[in-house]
Each structure stands twice: as C-alpha cells, then as structure tokens.
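Work package 3, deliverable 3.1, input record:
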Amino acid sequence: MILASAILSLAPQALPIGGGSIELEYKTYRKWDIVLPAEQFARVSGGFSSVSCSGESFGAELDGTALVVDTDGDGTPDVRVAGKKDDATGERSAMVTLTGTGTDGKPFQYAARLVDSGKGWHFAASGAQVGKIGETKVRLIDQNNDGRYDGFGQDAMTIGRSKFATFLSRAVNVGGVLYQIDVAPDGSRIDFEPYTGEVGVLDLASGLETDGKLLSAVVRSADRQFSFDLASFKKGIRVPAQTYSLHSGKLGLGKSVAYVKPGRLGEIDVTGGERTSLAWGGPVKAEFRYARNGGQVVIRPDDVTYFGKAGEEYRVWDPVGKSPEFTIKELKAGTELAKAMFPGSS
Amino acid sequence: MSPVPVALLGRYVLAAIAGVGSTVAAALAQDGVGRIPVRVVAGKLVVSCDASSPSRRIPVNLFVEFETACGMQLHNRAAAGLRIETSDGRAIPVTLHLPGFELVVPKREHGDEPFLEEFTKYHAAELGENAVVGVIGAEVLENYHVVFDVAEGVMELSAPRARDTEPPPVVEGTTNVPITLQGGMAWLPVRYGDGQPAALAIGSARYDTWIDATVCDERGKPAGDIGPLTIEGGIDVAKFVALRPEEVILVHPDSVAGVTGLGFLKHFRVEVDRTNRLAKLTQRARAEFPEADLAFFRARVDEEPEPLLEFLAAHEGARLAHEAAELLLDLSLSEDPEADAIQVALEWIRDTTVEDLRATRLLDLMTGLADEGFPRWVVAAGELAIPSGRDDRYPEAVHNVHSKMGEVLLAGGEGRRAWRHLLSAAFGIPEDGMVNLNLGRYYESEGRYKRAFSRYVQASIKVESGPAAIEALERVQPMLPDEDPFSVDLVERMIEGKVRGFGTATRFEADEINFAGRVALVEFFTNAYMGDGSRGAIGGALGNQGLLGHFPPENVAFLSYHLFEPNPDPMVNALSDHVIDVRGIERPMHLINGTAAQPGAGRWRDGEEIYNRCRKAIQLALLEQSSYALKLDARFGADGALSGTFTIEGPERDELDVNLILAERAVLFPGKTEVVVHRMVARASLLDAVDTAYRPTDESMAIPFTVDLGAIVQANVAFLDELEADGGGSVVRMSTAIDPAQVRLVGCIRNARTGEVLQAIQIDPEGPEERTQ
C-alpha cells in the first residue's frame, strides 16, 4: 500500500558544499563485496571487446580451461588465467587487470572478475572510480561492462560506506542534500550542483514489516535517470519528484538473507512537497506450482514464489536450508497423504 | 505463517502448511546436564562428537554458533556419508553423540561448504583427525538451558528451567542480567557512555565482539573505540575487549549495539536461562584490554597500507597480525602493483602464518597473483614458500609452488631457472599436465625434441594442458625423423590406457534375420566442455565409442555434431548449427535414424548403460526395410580435391531430403570431459543445401560433388571467428584442420518433416597413397 501525505514544509536544504567538481581515482577491489543492483557478467568472446573506453583492444583466447589474456592490449597475450576452482560447484574464478591508455590519452585501468561456471569465461568489473563529495565517499562502477562510467540508469554507484550500490543516478543525496551530477565517460570526474527540480520525500524503511534488517531497497525512476537506496533512511530521503519503482532489495538477519524483487508491486509516485511511504513486507504469502510425474507430485524450489503485502516478491532465500513444508491431503476427507520438504532444509 | 492458497490436484489438495523459517526443534534423547568440552580454534568455538544415522556413525567437528539462525548445518559430504537423505528429499534424523548428552536433529541444513573446507585445510592440526563439517546453531540451542564456560573449555546443555516465581538469588561474583529474546537470540541490555540504551546479542560464532559500524560512525569513532558499553549490572564490555566495527545485520526493538564474541566469553561464564529471561555472568578472567586489537581496528580505518605496516611492526605476533598482513597486500596491490611494499606484505603474510602452512598459504596466494597478472610477485611469493616446503603439512604444496614458479619464469624467458623448478615439481607430481607441458616447452626451446615430445604426450591427455600439448606434438614430431608421422592414430596409441575408453567384447554380424537392408544412421550430439571426466559428455562419448566398435560401418553409419552449450568447442560449425536448429536438439543425445532419441551424456560409468540402450534401439532400426538404395563414390584427386557422386534410387515422394556429410573419423581435442579423441565429427555438407530435396528422374537421382578440404577448414574457422565476434564465446583455434586420412563420407535420405532416416551409407574415399594411411 502506497501512502502519500503532504509535508508541512520541506526544510531548506543545508548546503555544506555548493556545486563543484571532484576527481576520482581508479581502485581495484581484489575481494569484491559491492552488491550491484543488476550485476551482469559479459561473455569473454575472443577478448574484452565491450570494454571500450580504452584505445587498446584486449584479446583473450582459451588455453585448455585457462584463459590467456592480452592485458596491456599490445596484441600479445601476457597473462594465463587458470582461476581458483571451487570443488563444490566446479566454478573457476579469478581476477585480471587490463591496463593501457584511454581514448583520451590518460592511463586506463580496468580490473575484471572472471568466472567460468561451466559456460565459458565471463567477466564483470572488479574495480571502481572512487572520490569524495565533501567527506562522503562516492564510487562509480561499470555495471554494464562497457568500460565506461557514465551510463545513467545502467552503471552503478555507492554513496558513503554502503556496499550496496544503486544505479548511476543523475541526482544523489549526500548528507541529506540533493545534488545533480554529471559524470565523465571514464569516471575520472564528477561535476555536481544542488538539485533545483521539484523534490519530495520517499520512505520505504518505516513501513516495512519484517523481523529482519532491510539491507538495501533500490528504487529507480521510470526514465531510469534517478536511483536511490532507501534502506538506511528510517524516515525517508529527499528525492526528485518522479515516478519510481522498486528495482531490488535485500533483507538480512545474521547470515540469512532474502532478495526482494518488485513482483506485483506497482509504481510509486513521488509528488513535489509530499511524503510518500510504502506499507510492505509481512505477512508473506506463498504461491506455488507443481507437476505430476506418474504417481509423484513434483515441486521445485523455483516453483514457489513468496509475495509481501504490497505485492513485492521475495526470492533466493539463503541459506537454502529453510523450506516450506508441503502436505498432500485427500480432498474430501482431508486425510493427510504425504508431507514433503525440499532436501537439505529444515 | 499464513497458509498458501490451495491448489487442486485431481482428488488431492496440495497445501503448504508451514512457512519459511519454520523451526524444527532438536529432541532431547537423554535427561540431565551435558558438560561438553569445547575448544577455541582460530576464533571459532568447536565441539568434537560423533554424528550418527541408523546406518552410519562418523566422528565430526562442529562449530557452535549461538546466534546463527540455523538448526544444524552439515556439509554435503558428511550428509552423504551418513545417508540421511533419500532421493525424494525425505530426511532421516541425525543424532549428535556429545559427552553425556545426545541431540537428535530431524533434518540438516546446507552450510558454507567452501569456508568449512578452507577452515579444515588450514587448521587440521588443531582439529585433530576430523574435519569441521557443520554448525550447531540457534534453532537447536534455543531449546536448552545453555552455559558457556569457555575459559574452562566447557559448554553445558540441559533442559529448560522451570519458571521461577522468586527473583533470582544474588550470588557474589555473579551478575544477574535480564535478557530479551528476539529473532531466536538472547540479548543483553547495554548502555553507551552517553546513557543511550541498546541491545547486545550473546554470540559465539566469532572471536571478536562486533559493534555496529553505524553506531561507531555516528559517534565519530570508526575504529570502534566508542567508550563504555555497559551491560545492565555494571559490566563494561569495552574494558574486556576491543569492539570491532562491522556491519551487524540484526534487529532489536531497543536498537542493536552488536554481538559478543569468544574474546568476551573467555572472560565470563555466561548462563542463559531463556525461560526466566535471565543471564548470569560470572567473571572468569581479569580484564586485560587487548590494545593490539584496537590498534588493528584503527589501522584499517583509512584503507591505506602505511597504518597497517606500522601496526605489524609494532604488534608482532598479535592475534590479528595475519589478517593485517593480508589486508596490507590487498591495499598495496590496489594502490601500486609495482611497489616494493608488496614484497614486504608478502613477507608479513609468511611470518604471520604458522610454519607448517607457509608453503600452502603462499601457494594459494601465488595462484591469485598469477591470474591477476603479477608474475613478479608470483615468483617472489614462491621464493618465500620454498624454504618452508619440507615442513608444510601438505607435502604436495611445495611441488605446486615449483610448478607455478616454473610456469611463470618460463613465460618470462628465464628458461634455465624455470627448468630447475619444473623438474622439482615433476618429482612430486609427475602426471601434472602443466608441469609436463612446460617441461616440453623448455626442451623444445633447447632443441631437445625427443624429450619434449615425451613430455607433450603426457600433457596431451590433461584438460588444462591438452590443447597446447597437441599443437606442440604436431610441431615437434617433424623434428623426429625416426618416429611415426604425427596423426590422430599415433596419439591415440600413445595415450592408450591413460584415458577412459570403452570397448565391446562382441561385434554385430549381419544376417538375414537381424538386418533388413536399411543402414541405420546414429547422430551423436555432444560438447567437449560438458561436465568433466566423471560425468557429463563423457558417459555419452564412451557409449558412442562402444557402438562404433560393435557395429560394422556397412550396417550403421555414425556422425557427431557438437553443441554450442555450455561453451562452443572448435568442432562446432555452420553444419552443426543448422542440424541442431532444424532437429530442435537442446541437449546431448544419440538420435537413431533421426527419430529415436537415446541418452548422450551421463556419468562415465553410465557409458555401458548408454551403449546398451542405443545398441538395442539400433538393432530395432536394423530390422526396418527400406525402399531406397544409396551409392556413394568418392576419391581424392592429385590436387587434393575430393570429388565423387552420390546416387539415390527409390520412389519419389513429397518431403524427402538427401544429406551428404563429410566427417572425420577421429579428431584430437582434449576438452573438459577428458575425451581426447572425438569420433565421426561432422565437418561440412557436400551438397549446396544441407537438406537437398530428393528430385529423382526415373526413381534415381545422382548428385556429383567436388570439394576442397582447405575451403572447408577456412569456412569453419570463419564460422568460429564470427561466432566469437557475435559474443558466442571464446573458442580454441585448434582441431579445425581436416586430415584426409580420417575423412569419411556419410549420406542418407530422410523424411524432411519427421527427420526419419530411410536409408544411409558411409564410405571412406579412395585417394592417392600419400594422402591416406
């Protein structure tokens, strides 16, 4: 349920920093822990052709199960990536760093996580352009693997200490102040100035009914230009007056997590000068499909879908050790015929 | 939890009656108090016990994690050993035999298996002979009255207490603290220095006591030194431990301060009485604030190498020194991969690792550094590892260190130095593919071709080294005039017995009863990257090999097409693309006469079963008659071109197509499946259209053809280039050449609509002696 109420006054924003530009530097993350809203791995198909911000072409070819990579773009393969094999899944993973000179003549660096889960090598960014607006850390991530950082609505960014990224957004909330930003294609600079458009407050945290902790709640505007993570703002934050939709989220409790997708949740309109909040979360309703296979009833974990009260969908419960208990009953008498749970669960 | 909507299923109603997160309580099998010995190993609380099912009993180590939201997690291998799950998902209870106490857990849950394996690998000596295979969590422990007495090495479990009607007695030295229960956890009420209240969960999963990083940030103390954190009753946690700032993913109505760790539990006997919402804390050890811990938390705040270096220099031997050294390496590499500080970081990692695991740890590091393209640091780490090799817990570690160093040095042009390392490696791991490949490369560079050839042969059968080794064999063999010419047959002879194969004891002999005149066509769809040497394409390939050995070519024709999934191999081509598309093939299979599908993949030991199923299907197909007769003549000309005529005789009908395919009897390519020789690989159609309509004149149609093998190879390579450019995946450029000696032609006529093969034929072309064997 979406609730909107007028805000008596939108307190004028205190502007600790006016407009300006910041320089960002590339940083490699050898242990990647940034959670991207729409992480995607691109296929290494003869090389890293989609990494286009560089003047070089980074070729790659298979050598047995390893990948031989031309990491400096000089046409000669120089690194053989064997990867660390996960004995449980058979997946190989590694990291490689591509270096050279960018199209603008500046040094170019691009660290890539490499994964081969049995379907060939794929890659995703393992680094970010890092800078600070005031004292607040800003990281830009090439989420769509094209080697650029200026894909609003496609690339990703984090604000502050959070490891949960939003889509790259034309407006960012830094210390409660809304700024409009522009990003250099190579991610080396952000120009920012106070946001001057209509503003409302969007609050997803206070209306969530859960026993867990809301770790991320990424919304994106319908035109994909604005995106925010609302999880840590218990009273909501100022956002441009736009129509938003929940893109993704994550709930946690200790080591247990569940992922949130929009499911049947509709759009969320934020009107200028108004507060918009959402009543969502529990109680959760499960729906499932099943198949008959001879005398057996087959239900797969993927066949069970969980919906919250606003229609949002919960999936990929981790650990997988939690399962609904299924009971098959005789229709008329109600006699219990069988009980089942997913294997390895409780 | 609300029931789910009811769905009708015939006569039955299928309903889920319990929801996600339902708790299964462990059953108490024996009354009384269990005093269970526990140990702190590398910051984890470990209990050793036996786990049993009705059929098995095994000794295990388990982590005790009071705050982790799970019942009992168990590694797949332990679960398999105990046989506690049936194939339809039913669980068989597990009994944990603790000293004086037994716990029955109805179902296990999955855990973090890579972490369990890594922990066992690095702490095997402290753990004893048994691996850590799981976790006992909150959903089991919350059913008991629990006492942690970590200082005494004991945990007590007993039945929940009765509800007290009187206030708890005051015992000198013991602080009674009212607790709250939230999310399956027991929480202590605490106050910060400014008097603000919060809740601190009682935990045993980690050594450090965590403080929520947001709390620290709000107080401007990112290193966690926020001042007092006082439990109701007066115990200031911050006097006993340095609070570690981390993201704490827990919820409590009073706001979450953090979670206690074993460092705190070592100072207090903590008795948790859930029934009466009471914790009793009795101090066991004097408060000695761990300055070194706080120093590390401070050193990591800025994410810069220098403070970590200072911490390591000032706190040698500190508990967190190894973590600091690892972080130092991470940050140094991220900042400047060429900086000398990395050598220092590597030395710190060595020095902060126990002596008998130094080679193992540095080897793990070398693997990552090699992948990341830091050969200088791979060698540096190797040099640090080798002196510790003899003392390492894992004897093979040092051999792998030598192997990795040899590989990197050879690639860097330091052949002689590389050779010494590779020889050392070969001494310990003589069958390793990369060691043999690199030794072969070294010998080849030195002109010692016979030695190189021998090493390449050994490398050719391993997936990681096979493709490169086969290319090398082809390159080196001409340098050895006394050896047989390089060919698939030569390699097959050399690797015989080293790879899996499947031969049949019997051979099909056609007679009037079992063969009605229609030659069957077996089309095998496979991929060299599907699965590994134990399951996947290997099962189908072995079955296929058995069929090739059992059926004579005049009765059964064979073709294999390579699928594009999971990753295209070099034997995919425009022809396989077309056939897979037209026939709608989505998985590995054998297709008998175009219609009868049989398995094409499985475990290697399923090879015989696949062979048997296909053989029976083929035998049935051979009983079918045919109205069509095929004749195929083909010959290699002196110019290398292959030409001939394909003649089809039989009645004209709508929707009949003819195919004429050029195949290679054997192609060398060691993929992940450990199949080295791929058989009857379809290379190209010899007709203008793969499916050419049957248009006879007087019930006969003759199709002349001429083809140049070089053009086929060129077209197939161009296809792979295009596939890569279109994002279809990286493809190894080998095994694309076609050996005339291996060429076999397969023709057939089939129903274009159903795909049914009505007659087939296969022949080996005639040709000049020098082009055939």
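The mean pLDDT of chain A is 86.
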